[in-house]
Design goal:
The protein is α+β, with helices and mostly antiparallel strands. The chain has helices spanning 62-66, 89-102, 110-127, 204-219, 265-276, 288-297, 334-347; strands at residues 33-40, 43-51, 69-71, 74-78, 84-87, 139-148, 161-170, 181-186, 224-228, 236-239, 243-248, 251-254, 281-283, 300-307, 311-320, 323-325, 358-360. The chain is built from 7 helices and 17 strands. The chain binds pyridoxal-5'-phosphate.
Length: 365
Protein backbone atom coordinates (compact mmCIF):
# COMPACT_ATOMS: atom_id res chain seq x y z
CA UNK A 1 0.00 0.00 0.00
CA UNK A 2 1.49 3.39 -0.93
CA UNK A 3 2.34 5.63 2.01
CA UNK A 4 0.28 8.73 2.48
CA UNK A 5 2.12 11.98 1.96
CA UNK A 6 4.18 13.35 4.81
CA UNK A 7 3.06 16.66 6.33
CA UNK A 8 5.04 19.64 5.08
CA UNK A 9 6.12 22.87 6.76
CA UNK A 10 7.37 24.96 3.85
CA UNK A 11 10.16 27.54 4.05
CA UNK A 12 9.14 31.17 4.38
CA UNK A 13 11.87 32.32 2.04
CA UNK A 14 13.74 30.09 -0.42
CA UNK A 15 17.54 30.31 -0.54
CA UNK A 16 17.61 29.21 -4.18
CA UNK A 17 18.55 32.62 -5.59
CA UNK A 18 21.91 32.38 -3.72
CA UNK A 19 22.96 29.23 -5.60
CA UNK A 20 25.49 29.45 -8.42
CA UNK A 21 24.67 26.43 -10.55
CA UNK A 22 27.90 26.84 -12.50
CA UNK A 23 30.00 26.23 -9.38
CA UNK A 24 28.14 23.64 -7.35
CA UNK A 25 31.04 21.64 -5.92
CA UNK A 26 30.01 18.61 -3.90
CA UNK A 27 27.75 18.66 -0.87
CA UNK A 28 28.20 22.18 0.46
CA UNK A 29 24.80 23.55 -0.61
CA UNK A 30 21.61 22.15 0.87
CA UNK A 31 18.11 22.52 -0.54
CA UNK A 32 15.32 24.37 1.24
CA UNK A 33 13.66 21.30 2.79
CA UNK A 34 14.58 18.13 4.64
CA UNK A 35 12.72 15.05 5.85
CA UNK A 36 12.73 14.32 9.56
CA UNK A 37 11.54 11.42 11.71
CA UNK A 38 12.26 10.54 15.34
CA UNK A 39 12.57 7.39 17.41
CA UNK A 40 11.40 7.58 20.99
CA UNK A 41 9.91 5.13 23.50
CA UNK A 42 10.50 2.21 21.18
CA UNK A 43 8.80 3.59 18.04
CA UNK A 44 9.62 5.58 14.93
CA UNK A 45 7.27 8.52 14.71
CA UNK A 46 6.48 11.98 13.48
CA UNK A 47 7.62 11.78 9.83
CA UNK A 48 7.49 15.21 8.27
CA UNK A 49 9.11 17.58 5.84
CA UNK A 50 10.38 20.84 7.24
CA UNK A 51 12.79 23.64 6.35
CA UNK A 52 16.45 22.56 6.28
CA UNK A 53 17.70 23.64 9.68
CA UNK A 54 20.22 23.12 12.46
CA UNK A 55 19.62 20.22 14.85
CA UNK A 56 19.44 21.04 18.53
CA UNK A 57 21.54 18.43 20.31
CA UNK A 58 23.22 18.42 23.68
CA UNK A 59 27.01 18.04 23.94
CA UNK A 60 26.42 14.89 25.99
CA UNK A 61 24.77 13.05 23.10
CA UNK A 62 26.57 9.71 22.91
CA UNK A 63 26.65 9.77 19.09
CA UNK A 64 29.07 12.68 19.21
CA UNK A 65 31.43 10.68 21.40
CA UNK A 66 31.02 7.07 20.31
CA UNK A 67 29.90 7.45 16.71
CA UNK A 68 26.47 5.80 16.60
CA UNK A 69 25.59 7.27 13.25
CA UNK A 70 24.89 5.84 9.80
CA UNK A 71 24.19 7.45 6.46
CA UNK A 72 23.84 6.67 2.78
CA UNK A 73 23.92 8.50 -0.53
CA UNK A 74 22.05 8.32 -3.82
CA UNK A 75 21.23 10.66 -6.64
CA UNK A 76 18.39 11.92 -8.75
CA UNK A 77 18.89 13.34 -12.21
CA UNK A 78 17.04 15.83 -14.35
CA UNK A 79 16.91 13.96 -17.62
CA UNK A 80 17.30 15.24 -21.15
CA UNK A 81 13.50 15.01 -21.39
CA UNK A 82 13.01 17.12 -18.23
CA UNK A 83 11.84 14.09 -16.19
CA UNK A 84 13.47 13.50 -12.80
CA UNK A 85 14.85 10.00 -12.16
CA UNK A 86 16.04 8.56 -8.84
CA UNK A 87 18.73 5.88 -9.23
CA UNK A 88 18.18 2.64 -7.25
CA UNK A 89 16.98 4.20 -3.95
CA UNK A 90 15.63 0.87 -2.64
CA UNK A 91 19.15 -0.53 -2.73
CA UNK A 92 20.41 2.36 -0.65
CA UNK A 93 17.54 1.72 1.76
CA UNK A 94 18.62 -1.91 2.13
CA UNK A 95 22.21 -0.84 2.75
CA UNK A 96 21.14 1.82 5.26
CA UNK A 97 19.06 -0.86 6.98
CA UNK A 98 22.10 -3.17 7.18
CA UNK A 99 24.23 -0.29 8.50
CA UNK A 100 21.62 0.34 11.23
CA UNK A 101 21.69 -3.30 12.30
CA UNK A 102 25.49 -3.24 12.54
CA UNK A 103 25.45 0.00 14.56
CA UNK A 104 22.72 -1.34 16.86
CA UNK A 105 20.15 1.23 15.70
CA UNK A 106 16.56 -0.01 16.13
CA UNK A 107 15.28 0.30 12.59
CA UNK A 108 11.98 -0.61 10.97
CA UNK A 109 11.89 -3.36 8.30
CA UNK A 110 14.00 -2.83 5.19
CA UNK A 111 10.95 -2.63 2.88
CA UNK A 112 9.24 -0.07 5.08
CA UNK A 113 12.42 1.98 5.28
CA UNK A 114 12.65 1.82 1.48
CA UNK A 115 9.06 3.02 1.07
CA UNK A 116 9.65 5.90 3.46
CA UNK A 117 12.86 6.90 1.70
CA UNK A 118 11.28 6.83 -1.76
CA UNK A 119 8.20 8.75 -0.65
CA UNK A 120 10.27 11.33 1.24
CA UNK A 121 12.66 11.73 -1.70
CA UNK A 122 9.78 12.22 -4.13
CA UNK A 123 8.20 14.87 -1.91
CA UNK A 124 11.52 16.66 -1.40
CA UNK A 125 12.11 16.62 -5.15
CA UNK A 126 8.66 17.99 -5.81
CA UNK A 127 9.05 20.78 -3.25
CA UNK A 128 12.60 21.69 -4.25
CA UNK A 129 12.26 20.89 -7.97
CA UNK A 130 13.95 24.14 -9.01
CA UNK A 131 17.04 23.11 -7.06
CA UNK A 132 17.65 20.10 -9.32
CA UNK A 133 20.46 21.07 -11.66
CA UNK A 134 20.01 20.51 -15.35
CA UNK A 135 23.54 20.33 -16.77
CA UNK A 136 24.98 16.98 -17.82
CA UNK A 137 27.08 15.60 -14.95
CA UNK A 138 25.16 17.54 -12.31
CA UNK A 139 22.54 15.94 -10.09
CA UNK A 140 20.65 16.16 -6.83
CA UNK A 141 22.52 14.17 -4.19
CA UNK A 142 20.30 12.69 -1.48
CA UNK A 143 21.80 12.02 1.93
CA UNK A 144 19.82 10.04 4.54
CA UNK A 145 21.35 10.16 8.03
CA UNK A 146 20.38 8.40 11.25
CA UNK A 147 21.95 9.50 14.54
CA UNK A 148 21.56 8.52 18.17
CA UNK A 149 20.22 11.54 20.08
CA UNK A 150 20.16 10.35 23.66
CA UNK A 151 22.32 12.37 26.02
CA UNK A 152 24.39 9.87 27.97
CA UNK A 153 28.07 9.14 28.35
CA UNK A 154 27.41 5.44 28.85
CA UNK A 155 28.82 3.31 26.05
CA UNK A 156 25.66 1.61 24.77
CA UNK A 157 23.09 2.02 22.00
CA UNK A 158 20.97 5.16 22.38
CA UNK A 159 17.28 5.09 23.27
CA UNK A 160 16.36 7.93 20.92
CA UNK A 161 17.26 8.70 17.30
CA UNK A 162 16.70 11.23 14.54
CA UNK A 163 16.38 10.25 10.89
CA UNK A 164 17.02 13.08 8.43
CA UNK A 165 17.03 13.10 4.65
CA UNK A 166 18.71 16.15 3.15
CA UNK A 167 19.31 16.97 -0.49
CA UNK A 168 22.10 18.85 -2.21
CA UNK A 169 22.60 19.97 -5.81
CA UNK A 170 26.04 18.70 -6.86
CA UNK A 171 28.52 18.82 -9.67
CA UNK A 172 30.94 16.01 -10.33
CA UNK A 173 32.99 14.81 -7.34
CA UNK A 174 36.27 14.10 -9.05
CA UNK A 175 38.35 15.55 -11.81
CA UNK A 176 37.02 15.25 -15.29
CA UNK A 177 36.75 12.03 -17.24
CA UNK A 178 39.72 12.86 -19.47
CA UNK A 179 42.14 13.42 -16.60
CA UNK A 180 41.33 10.50 -14.34
CA UNK A 181 42.45 10.29 -10.71
CA UNK A 182 45.74 9.38 -9.06
CA UNK A 183 45.66 6.87 -6.22
CA UNK A 184 48.23 6.21 -3.53
CA UNK A 185 48.29 2.68 -2.16
CA UNK A 186 48.02 2.91 1.63
CA UNK A 187 50.29 0.34 3.23
CA UNK A 188 50.52 1.80 6.74
CA UNK A 189 46.98 2.63 7.85
CA UNK A 190 43.80 0.57 7.51
CA UNK A 191 40.27 1.72 6.67
CA UNK A 192 38.37 -1.16 8.27
CA UNK A 193 39.12 -4.51 9.90
CA UNK A 194 39.12 -7.54 7.60
CA UNK A 195 36.98 -9.69 9.88
CA UNK A 196 33.99 -8.58 11.90
CA UNK A 197 34.59 -4.84 11.64
CA UNK A 198 32.46 -1.98 10.36
CA UNK A 199 33.77 -1.86 6.78
CA UNK A 200 30.50 -2.84 5.08
CA UNK A 201 28.48 -0.26 7.03
CA UNK A 202 28.25 3.32 5.87
CA UNK A 203 29.19 4.79 9.20
CA UNK A 204 31.32 7.66 10.46
CA UNK A 205 34.13 5.52 11.92
CA UNK A 206 35.25 4.26 8.50
CA UNK A 207 35.50 7.80 7.20
CA UNK A 208 37.25 9.01 10.37
CA UNK A 209 39.89 6.30 9.83
CA UNK A 210 40.42 7.59 6.30
CA UNK A 211 41.06 11.25 7.13
CA UNK A 212 44.76 11.13 8.06
CA UNK A 213 45.84 8.86 5.17
CA UNK A 214 43.64 10.92 2.82
CA UNK A 215 45.24 14.16 3.94
CA UNK A 216 48.76 12.67 3.69
CA UNK A 217 48.16 11.34 0.21
CA UNK A 218 46.77 14.70 -0.95
CA UNK A 219 49.82 16.49 0.39
CA UNK A 220 51.91 14.08 -1.69
CA UNK A 221 49.90 15.10 -4.75
CA UNK A 222 47.49 12.15 -5.01
CA UNK A 223 43.73 12.44 -5.29
CA UNK A 224 42.65 9.43 -3.25
CA UNK A 225 43.82 6.48 -1.18
CA UNK A 226 43.69 2.90 -2.45
CA UNK A 227 43.11 0.72 0.60
CA UNK A 228 44.62 -2.68 1.25
CA UNK A 229 43.32 -5.41 3.57
CA UNK A 230 43.95 -4.92 7.28
CA UNK A 231 45.62 -8.28 7.96
CA UNK A 232 48.50 -8.26 5.51
CA UNK A 233 48.29 -4.95 3.63
CA UNK A 234 48.46 -7.07 0.52
CA UNK A 235 45.03 -7.33 -1.11
CA UNK A 236 43.27 -4.39 -2.72
CA UNK A 237 40.05 -3.29 -1.00
CA UNK A 238 38.53 -0.06 -2.35
CA UNK A 239 39.12 3.66 -2.77
CA UNK A 240 38.00 6.49 -0.47
CA UNK A 241 34.61 6.99 -2.10
CA UNK A 242 34.40 4.29 -4.75
CA UNK A 243 34.88 0.61 -5.44
CA UNK A 244 37.74 -0.37 -7.70
CA UNK A 245 37.93 -2.41 -10.92
CA UNK A 246 40.92 -3.65 -12.94
CA UNK A 247 40.82 -4.90 -16.52
CA UNK A 248 43.64 -7.40 -16.84
CA UNK A 249 44.24 -9.53 -19.93
CA UNK A 250 40.66 -9.02 -21.13
CA UNK A 251 39.01 -9.93 -17.79
CA UNK A 252 37.53 -7.50 -15.29
CA UNK A 253 38.52 -8.09 -11.67
CA UNK A 254 37.10 -6.41 -8.57
CA UNK A 255 37.56 -7.25 -4.87
CA UNK A 256 34.77 -9.39 -3.39
CA UNK A 257 32.24 -8.19 -0.77
CA UNK A 258 33.73 -9.74 2.31
CA UNK A 259 32.43 -7.38 5.01
CA UNK A 260 35.39 -5.00 4.96
CA UNK A 261 34.42 -2.92 1.91
CA UNK A 262 31.29 -0.97 1.14
CA UNK A 263 28.85 -2.94 -1.05
CA UNK A 264 28.63 -0.20 -3.66
CA UNK A 265 25.46 0.26 -5.64
CA UNK A 266 27.35 1.52 -8.67
CA UNK A 267 29.69 -1.47 -8.23
CA UNK A 268 26.66 -3.75 -8.46
CA UNK A 269 25.33 -1.82 -11.47
CA UNK A 270 28.70 -1.97 -13.24
CA UNK A 271 28.98 -5.73 -12.62
CA UNK A 272 25.49 -6.23 -14.05
CA UNK A 273 26.29 -4.22 -17.19
CA UNK A 274 29.67 -5.91 -17.70
CA UNK A 275 28.05 -9.34 -17.45
CA UNK A 276 25.27 -8.22 -19.81
CA UNK A 277 27.94 -7.34 -22.34
CA UNK A 278 29.43 -10.81 -22.07
CA UNK A 279 32.64 -9.78 -20.38
CA UNK A 280 34.40 -12.18 -18.08
CA UNK A 281 34.13 -10.70 -14.58
CA UNK A 282 35.80 -11.99 -11.44
CA UNK A 283 34.93 -10.91 -7.91
CA UNK A 284 38.02 -12.14 -6.15
CA UNK A 285 40.89 -11.06 -3.97
CA UNK A 286 43.52 -9.24 -5.97
CA UNK A 287 46.96 -8.57 -4.50
CA UNK A 288 48.56 -5.20 -5.17
CA UNK A 289 51.60 -7.18 -6.40
CA UNK A 290 49.37 -8.76 -9.06
CA UNK A 291 48.31 -5.28 -10.22
CA UNK A 292 51.95 -4.14 -10.40
CA UNK A 293 52.95 -7.34 -12.24
CA UNK A 294 50.09 -6.89 -14.73
CA UNK A 295 51.20 -3.29 -15.30
CA UNK A 296 54.81 -4.41 -15.87
CA UNK A 297 53.81 -7.16 -18.30
CA UNK A 298 51.49 -4.82 -20.22
CA UNK A 299 48.40 -6.84 -19.32
CA UNK A 300 46.82 -4.12 -17.14
CA UNK A 301 44.44 -2.53 -19.63
CA UNK A 302 42.26 -0.26 -17.50
CA UNK A 303 41.63 0.73 -13.89
CA UNK A 304 38.50 2.56 -12.83
CA UNK A 305 36.43 3.34 -9.77
CA UNK A 306 32.65 3.16 -9.39
CA UNK A 307 30.55 5.13 -6.92
CA UNK A 308 27.52 7.39 -6.64
CA UNK A 309 29.58 10.55 -6.26
CA UNK A 310 32.40 9.43 -8.55
CA UNK A 311 30.13 7.76 -11.18
CA UNK A 312 32.63 5.76 -13.27
CA UNK A 313 36.01 7.33 -12.77
CA UNK A 314 39.18 6.44 -14.68
CA UNK A 315 42.34 5.90 -12.66
CA UNK A 316 45.31 7.53 -14.38
CA UNK A 317 48.09 6.49 -12.01
CA UNK A 318 48.80 4.44 -8.91
CA UNK A 319 51.58 5.22 -6.43
CA UNK A 320 53.01 2.33 -4.43
CA UNK A 321 56.20 2.11 -2.36
CA UNK A 322 57.65 5.26 -3.91
CA UNK A 323 56.94 4.22 -7.53
CA UNK A 324 54.29 5.81 -9.74
CA UNK A 325 52.60 3.45 -12.17
CA UNK A 326 50.97 5.42 -15.01
CA UNK A 327 48.22 2.86 -15.55
CA UNK A 328 46.52 5.00 -18.17
CA UNK A 329 48.27 7.68 -20.21
CA UNK A 330 45.08 8.83 -21.94
CA UNK A 331 42.03 8.12 -19.79
CA UNK A 332 39.31 7.04 -20.03
CA UNK A 333 39.90 3.53 -21.37
CA UNK A 334 37.40 2.07 -23.82
CA UNK A 335 35.52 -0.01 -21.25
CA UNK A 336 35.57 2.77 -18.63
CA UNK A 337 34.00 5.12 -21.15
CA UNK A 338 31.43 2.55 -22.27
CA UNK A 339 30.34 2.00 -18.66
CA UNK A 340 30.24 5.73 -17.97
CA UNK A 341 28.14 6.34 -21.08
CA UNK A 342 25.73 3.48 -20.36
CA UNK A 343 25.25 4.36 -16.70
CA UNK A 344 24.81 8.09 -17.22
CA UNK A 345 22.67 7.34 -20.29
CA UNK A 346 20.26 5.38 -18.07
CA UNK A 347 20.39 8.00 -15.31
CA UNK A 348 19.64 10.95 -17.60
CA UNK A 349 17.01 9.09 -19.62
CA UNK A 350 19.04 8.87 -22.81
CA UNK A 351 19.13 5.07 -22.77
CA UNK A 352 16.46 2.54 -21.77
CA UNK A 353 16.38 1.35 -18.16
CA UNK A 354 16.43 -2.39 -18.86
CA UNK A 355 17.06 -3.41 -15.25
CA UNK A 356 14.36 -1.37 -13.55
CA UNK A 357 16.91 0.80 -11.73
CA UNK A 358 15.06 4.07 -12.13
CA UNK A 359 12.34 5.28 -9.80
CA UNK A 360 10.40 8.14 -11.32
CA UNK A 361 9.85 11.35 -9.39
CA UNK A 362 7.08 13.25 -11.11
CA UNK A 363 7.47 17.01 -10.84
CA UNK A 364 4.76 19.35 -11.93
CA UNK A 365 6.02 22.31 -13.88
C1 LIG B 1 34.09 3.93 0.97
C2 LIG B 1 33.19 3.87 -0.21
N1 LIG B 1 33.30 2.83 -1.06
C3 LIG B 1 32.49 2.72 -2.13
C4 LIG B 1 31.53 3.66 -2.41
C5 LIG B 1 30.63 3.50 -3.60
O1 LIG B 1 29.33 3.12 -3.20
P1 LIG B 1 28.07 3.51 -4.07
O2 LIG B 1 28.30 2.95 -5.42
O3 LIG B 1 26.90 2.87 -3.40
O4 LIG B 1 27.99 4.99 -4.07
C6 LIG B 1 31.38 4.75 -1.56
C7 LIG B 1 30.34 5.75 -1.85
O5 LIG B 1 30.08 6.69 -1.26
C8 LIG B 1 32.22 4.87 -0.42
O6 LIG B 1 32.10 5.89 0.44
Amino acid sequence: MPLSRFPVTPVQQSRLSQVDFNHLGFGSIFCDHMFSMTYENGAWMNPQIQPYQALAIEPGVAMLHYGQTVFDGYKSFRGIDGEVRIFRPEMNARRLHASCLRLCIPIMGADELGEIMVQATRQLIELDRDWIPSQWGQSLYIRPLIIGTESTLEVRAANSYRFIIMTSPVGSYFTNLKKGVSLRVEDRFTRAASLGGLGAAKTAANYAASLLPGSESRSEGFDQVLWLDSNEHRYVEEVGAMNIFFKIGGKVVTPPLGGSILPGIVRDSALTLLRDWGLEVEERRIAIDEVVAAFSSGELEEVFGAGTAAVICPVASIGYKGEIYPVSSSPPGELTLRLYDELTGIQYGKLPDRHGWIVGAPVSA
